[in-house]
What we know:
The protein has six helices and eleven strands. By secondary structure, the protein is of the alpha+beta class. The chain has two domains: 2-81 and 225-230; 92-217, Gcn5-related N-acetyltransferase (GNAT) (Aminopeptidase), CATH 3.40.630.30. The protein has an eleven-stranded mixed sheet with strand order 1-2-3-4-11-5-10-9-8-7-6, sandwiched between helices. Helix 1 runs parallel beside helix 2 (64-72) and helix 3 (108-121) crosses helix 4.
Amino acid sequence: MFTRLPDPDVFAYVSDLPLPIFSGAIAPRFAPGTELRRAGELLEALLANGQPFQWWSGALTRSVQVEELLAARGLVTEGLTPGMHADLAAVDLPDQDGPVSVEVCSTDEEWLEANRVFTEAFEIPAEFAEVFVAVWRAVPGSLQLVARVGGVPVGAAAGVALDGVMGVYNVGTLEAARRQGVGRATTAALMRMGREAGCHSAILHASELGYPVYEGLGFEHVTDISQYVWLPTAT
Length: 235
């Protein structure tokens, strides 16, 4: 499904799937003085693949010159995305009560149900739900949650604990169920699971909609993430 590119100074990968998340470059660490050359070389490889791709960098790996090159080559950005951190030993997590129930998925059917909710929440074509299941189930220790209100699946979130940090991903709620505490419940559940697994921290990147929810759970805005996306031009 994915091919990791051999570049040692960046995590870069390609696939034949037409969504930007499935090909791209993450956290380039180009040697000083080589940034533009290496970015150009990597861009050529990603563009040659012909599929949409993303280019992610954080505060330690961002370069103004590289971002100017990305824009010149047709990549677009919606600006910086907040990167947030929570100290799991210090935060006060809410009790698991109220109308929202959160379950850990175990069967193939449960994973698929959760990712159908996720793709609908993010307006991703429904046929990609199975792809997300395959991707996440291949990650050691990954967790997939589904949230229900009145027994109906309305929210989802994924997580994975690594080196004492719980990464929180793909938090989504169906539009009709928003502002009922669904995203808060799934995020808090992952934080609680991380704490129980011995994690000291939880991290995520926040949308404008999710930011106040995460802030209310004890996350703090600690960095900014730059994301550029390239989409093929329709012919």
